[in-house]
Structure formats: C-alpha cells, structure tokens
Specification:
heterodimer, A: about 270 residues, MetI-like fold, about 80% helix, B: about 375 residues, Rossmann fold, OB fold (Dihydrolipoamide Acetyltransferase, E2P), 10 helices, elongated
C-alpha cells in the first residue's frame, strides 16, 4: 500500500512538472529543434534579448504588475480594515462573498464582462479605442483585490482588538494610531498580499487578453502571439524566465507565512 | 449642573444604549482625587462601559462627564489626562518592553535621554528591572500586566483606568498583583478606577466600592459599608455569602421573622413595614435547641479549611452557617443571632430573587458565579464599539 502511495505521488509530480522540465531543458538547446537536444547553449536567451518587442512586453508586464499590486495592496488593506470593523456579522459575510466572486469566477467570464463594460462605458462618453493601459490596470487591480483582502483579514483578526485604542489612550490621534499600532503587526499579511497580487498580475493571460489594447502588450500576451506565427525555442526561454520569477515569488510568500505562523505559535506558548 | 469641585471626575446622568437596549441608566458618580475606586458587578452590568466612557472610547447618549469640573464629553481619548490598562493588556507586539513603555513619551516628543531614565524608573516600580530588551510576546501574563501598567503610568496620568486587569492571571499571581497594585497606587498617589466582577478583589483593594447591576449603581460605599450594610438583596448576595429572609419591622429595633421577634439595631422604618433581613453565615452561632432562638436540622456539612459550612433547615428555609465547630448531618440544633448580626433592608426589585441555600450543591456554586446569572444581557465586552 505504501509503495502504491509513493508511486502515485511520484506520478502526480511527473505529470505536473515534466512538461515544464522539458520546456526548461529545450530552452537551453543549441539548435532549433523540438525533438533533438543538440547541446547546452544560451543562444535563445540571447536572441530573446535582441527582440525589442519582447523586451518591451517584459517592461510592460513589470510596470503593470508593480502598479496594479501597489494599488490593490493599498485599497485591499483599507478594505480589510473596514470589513474587520463591521459590527453586523451578516453584512460582513455578504461583503466577503461579494469580494471573493472575482476569485472563483471563471477568468474568461471576468475578462469578457470587463471588456464589455469598458467598451460600453467608452461608447457612453464617445471615446473610441479605450482598451489599453488604463483598462488593463483597472482589470488587474480588480482581480488582485480579493487576494490582498484575504491575506490581510486573518492578521487583523489575530491582533488584540484594543491595540488601536491603547495607542490613542497614550496620546495618539486615530489615523496615526493605526499606522503606529495596527499596521506594523499586519505587515506580514500586507506583504504576502502584495507579492501575491504581483505574481497574479505578472502571469495573467485570459483577463489581460480581453482588456488590453494593441499598443500595450504584456509578456503572456506576447508569448501567445509569438506561438501564432511559429514556435521557436526563444518562446521556451521566455516561459522559463516567467516560471522562474513566479516560483521565486511563491517561495517568498511561503517563507513569509511560515515566519508569521512561527511567531503566532510562540505567542500561544506563553 | 457641573461636577462638584473636589472631584477629579464626575458622571452626571450617564445613559448609554446599544442596539436600543439601555446598558447604562442614569449613572451619577463622583470620583475623588487619589482614591482607589472599584466598579463591581456581574458581566453585563455596565461597569466596563462606564470605564470606557471615562476613557473617551464610548460617548454617552445622555448625561455629562466632567474632569475637574470641566465637561469633557467631546474630548477624544488621546487628549484626556487618563491612561488605561486594558483587559488583555493590548501591548504592541512589534515593540519590545522598552519601546512599549516609551510609546507615550515619544509621542509627546520627550528627549530620549529623559525617556530612558523614566522607563528605567517605571520598570523599577513594577519590578521588571533589566527587562528593557525583551520581546513582549515572550513574557508571562503577570509580566505583560506589569509592562501594561508601566506603559500607562509613565505618562503621569491623574487617573489610571484598569479594566479587569487581573482576570487572565491565576489565583496566586492575582493575590500578589492585588498587593502590588495597591502599593503602586499609594506610591504614585494617583486615582485608580478599577473594574472587576471579583468581590473579594474589590473589598481588599478599594477605598470606595461602586456596586452595579443592570446598568444602575446599586450602592456606593467603603468595603466595610458595602459588606455590613448592603442596601438591597442584590448587594447582599453579590458581596459574600448571606442568608436573606423576609421579615416585618414591627417597630424600631424589633424585627419579626418566622413569627418570632428579634432584637436588631435598625430603625427608621414604617411600623409593620415588610423588609429583607440579612444575616451573614459567620455571624450565626449554633447552640443546643433549648438555647436557640430558632431550631432546625443540619442537612449538609462542607469542610472549607478555615471553617465548616453547615446548611440548617429551619421551617423550610435553608440557612448557611459558617462555624469552626463540627455538627453532623441530621443533628437537631438551635441557632443564636446577636442584634448586631441582623441587618434590615428595604424591599427592592431584587427581593425574593436571592434567598436561602436550598439548592446548595456544587451546581449552586456555579450558578452563583456572576458570569452564570441567567437574566444577564449580553456581556458588554462583546459589544464592539
């Protein structure tokens, strides 16, 4: 039985990661072939960095990820504080459900509906060609928000509800008391939310596909349009880099969470 | 009307509603300078709300709060000359002991050298010398408590508010901290307003005890007054053990219970006025039937260490007697009550709510704990403002 479980586990991982492993391997191929590995080389990476359109997409993706995660973090943290302070349990769960819908909603539905909204709104004010940087930013902030809220809320629930009052009691005006007493204790949650938002924004394809315009392409969209012409190994190297970046961010998130859990269990001990 | 001049804090006609339900009904209270005053009552009685109104965290719906004769209803917490020790301490978890205590002075831009000296002084006061660099998350409950007190007192408040500060500590530590708190209060010579549901804590520490129930003040007095001369059945029952009997005040110094006349020291009632009579269990002597004023059968004996707790059934009323003499169950005995052991109270809405010890058992013990009273409104701590 035990060996069966082991075999099963190994199989799961093989199916999950073999394709990625093959892709990474072939991104270092010295020849242009999907079947034969002709030796190790960085040829396709070099080629990639000579492709100005790809570099531009990379730049766009990073701009989008930074901006949308920053905005979502600020707005989401504020929203989490508000939700945490709601007195009516009923209102609280309704609000949470509404904020969580973008998370469980099929991406394609979110994408199509947002595109419709943007086009409809632009018709109303008689502007054409509205899809582009700003609509993409709005879309990214929207799907990032629930992740920020969900990573900040548990932190708020853990802290002593009187922290902010304690700061005010010691002579701190209300807004300052939030930043001095409450914010430092929820920083791990805020950081996790921010990195999660950054990751999601970086690798989003479906929603971006519907809400962006021709003049602002992000990396996933660039990869997609490259595959439409012909599949060359430089696509592998681009995907490999995207995979590596997101893997790194996920590791950071996990380390952050493990650390704050450790702190939490320490507290319980005493 | 303003608060009287000698009072540091005055509450006038304070009323507060939560969701349409009154949690405070017309509270009037004068708090004097350098006084250790305790708000005592079961959970949900409004004591914490009263404290939060003084601290500025809750605004009363009716009535006024005066500090030194000045109305402060609209003064926010951060501008009030009071500091609070919160129920679960509310220490800042991201700061160490030193930075927690230095929080207030830093806000007031006190020079760092001065702060360092003052923090040292405070740590000395609360017996935590050398704890500056410790993380507050790694302190024991008692130590966290001391840091919370130091963090409040470093601001030189005129008044320190303490919201059930010993609730989370174990019994032994609680006793030590009671002594400690009293010492600190006398050493700093400031006013302490202390909230608790523990009557023993209230009696042993306070100069003045304010007994509250259902959003109203039942009685204000010294611990001795509260214990020896409770104004109604609620106070008599809540503070210590008491036998509360129906009686008729036939004349001054003469009360009738069970159809028999008892001499007492109370007067000023109307002729033949029905009253509640309190007799403390430790004030009753068990004697032989012939010598006794009343006689009955022992139904229950519990050894309590210092004394025996003996339940005696006298004509259906179960008396509790605390005595160092042992009497076996089923013994027929008499009881003797001296005139000064009898305390007569006017009838109140609490009459009949507390009576004898007929349900005396472990279960009864649990029921008589303040948190387990059935007719309580929801605990005020649960109402987040």
């Amino acid at each position: 039985m035990k060996t069966m479980i082991r075999i099963y586990t190994v199989l799961v991982y093989v199916f999950l990661y073999l394709p990625i492993a093959v892709m990474i391997l072939f991104s270092f191929n010295s020849i242009n072939s999907t079947g034969v590995f002709g030796g190790f080389s960085l040829r396709w990476y070099r080629e990639l960095f000579r492709d100005s359109e790809t570099l531009n997409a990379l730049k766009n993706s990073i701009i989008m990820a930074v901006l949308s995660s920053l905005i979502a973090t600020v707005v989401g943290t504020a929203a989490a504080v508000g939700i945490d302070k709601m007195r009516s349990r009923w209102l609280k769960s309704v609000t949470l459900t509404v904020t969580n819908i973008p998370m469980v909603n099929p991406e394609i539905v979110t994408g199509v509906s947002m595109m419709l909204l943007f086009v409809f709104a632009s018709r109303l004010v008689r502007i054409s060609g509205v899809l582009g940087f700003w609509t993409l930013l709005i879309a990214h902030v929207t799907f990032n928000l629930p992740y920020v809220i969900l990573s900040v809320l548990p932190k708020l629930r853990q802290i002593d509800p009187h922290l902010q009052e304690a700061a005010q009691d010691l002579g701190c005006p209300p807004l300052k008391s939030f930043f001095l007493a409450v914010f430092p204790t929820i920083v791990p949650g805020v950081l996790t939310g921010a990195i999660m938002a950054f990751t999601l924004s970086l690798d989003d394809f479906v929603i971006s596909y519907f809400t962006n315009g021709p003049e602002f392409q992000t990396l996933p969209i660039r990869i997609f349009s490259m595959t439409k012409k012909r599949v060359t190994p430089d696509i592998y190297s681009l995907s490999t880099m995207l995979f590596a970046a997101i893997l790194l961010l996920l590791i950071i998130i996990n380390v952050l969470q493990a650390q704050s859990e450790k702190q939490q269990s320490k507290k319980k001990y005493y | 009307m303003t608060g009287s001049e000698s009072c540091i804090i005055s509450l006038r006609g304070i009323t507060k509603y939560y969701n349409g339900e009154a949690v405070l009904r017309g509270i009037n209270l004068d708090i004097h300078d350098k006084e250790f005053i305790t708000l005592l009552g079961p959970s949900g009685c409004g004591k914490t709300t009263t404290l939060r109104i003084i601290g500025g965290f809750v605004t009363p719906d009716e009535g006024d709060v005066y500090f030194n004769g000045k109305r402060v209803n609209d003064v926010p917490p951060y501008k009030r000359p009071v500091n609070t020790v919160f129920q679960k301490y509310a220490l800042f978890p991201h700061l160490n002991v030193y930075d927690n205590i230095a929080f207030g002075p830093r806000l007031r831009k006190m020079p760092e050298s001065e702060i360092s000296r003052r923090v040292k002084e405070m740590l000395e006061l609360v017996n935590l010398r050398g704890f500056e660099r410790r993380s507050v998350n790694l302190l024991s409950g008692g130590q966290q408590q001391r840091v919370a007190i130091a963090r409040a007192l470093i601001n030189d408040p005129k008044v320190l508010l303490l919201d059930e500060p010993l609730g989370a500590l174990d019994l032994k530590l609680r006793k030590d901290m009671q002594v400690e708190l009293k010492r600190i209060q006398q050493q700093m010579s400031i006013t302490f307003i202390y909230v608790t549901h523990d009557q023993e804590e209230a009696l042993s520490m306070s100069d003045t005890v304010v007994v509250m129930d259902m959003g109203e003040i039942q009685q204000i007095g010294t611990p001795e007054e509260i214990y020896n001369e409770p104004v109604n059945a609620f106070v008599a029952d809540f503070i210590g053990e008491s036998n509360i009997l129906d009686g008729i005040m036939v004349d001054d110094l003469d009360v009738v219970m069970f159809g028999r006349h008892f001499k007492c020291l109370d007067k000023g009632f109307a002729k033949n006025e029905p009253v509640d009579v309190v007799v403390r269990p430790e004030d009753i002597d068990i004697v032989s039937v012939e010598e006794g004023m009343l006689s009955g059968v022992v139904t229950n004996v519990t050894f309590k260490g210092l004394h025996y707790e003996i339940i005696i059934d006298i004509e259906g009323f179960k008396w509790m007697v605390q005595t160092t003499d042992y009497w076996p169950v089923a013994a027929v005995v008499g009881i003797k009550i001296d005139p000064d052991a009898i305390h007569v109270m006017k009838k109140s809405k609490y009459s009949g709510a507390f009576g004898d010890y007929s349900s005396f058992s472990d279960e009864h013990e649990k029921l008589s704990e303040p948190d387990a009273k059935p007719e309580q409104p929801p605990a005020e701590e649960e109402i987040v403002d």
